[in-house]
Amino acid sequence: ETPAAPATPVIEEPPQEAPAAPAAPVIPEPPQELTGDALVAFTRNQYLEALAKEGIPASRGAWLYGDYRNDIPDVSDPITCARACNLDEKCYHWNFKFMAKRCDLKAQNGGINQ
């Protein structure tokens, strides 16, 4: 009988961990005395500042038409919404409804209402 050839050692790489998802922006709680339009303005401005700190261009307004994907699950801030759009090849714009914490992705056939 012919002796078996020595087995070639297999060196396994340790499993690669997926990079941690970026943390959601920390938005300060609004002062309790704010209500109505003042509360909306405070919250909107906090989110716009957080986007600017991340280098993500954003402005007040809403993209009309071009609905592509609405109410993206597990997205509760505009930075994550913008990143979801960047990762989706069909996404051209995004809307984040900050009081409802809802992210909608838009295709290229929309327009902006300011």
Task: Provide a descriptive summary of the structure in words.
This protein is α+β, with helices and mostly antiparallel strands and 114 residues long. The longest helix is centred in the middle third of the chain and has 18 residues, at 36-53. 25% of the residues lie in helices and 17% in strands. A 3-stranded antiparallel beta sheet has the order 2-4-3, with helices on one face. It has 2 helices and 5 strands. The protein is elongated. Residues 9-24 have a biased composition (Low complexity). Residues 1-32 are annotated as: Disordered. This is Dnah12 protein.
Topology:
Blueprint: H1 36-53, E1 62-64, E2 67-69, H2 78-87, E3 93-97, E4 102-106, E5 111-113
Give a concise summary.
The chain is of the alpha+beta class and 114 residues long. It is 25% helix and 17% strand.
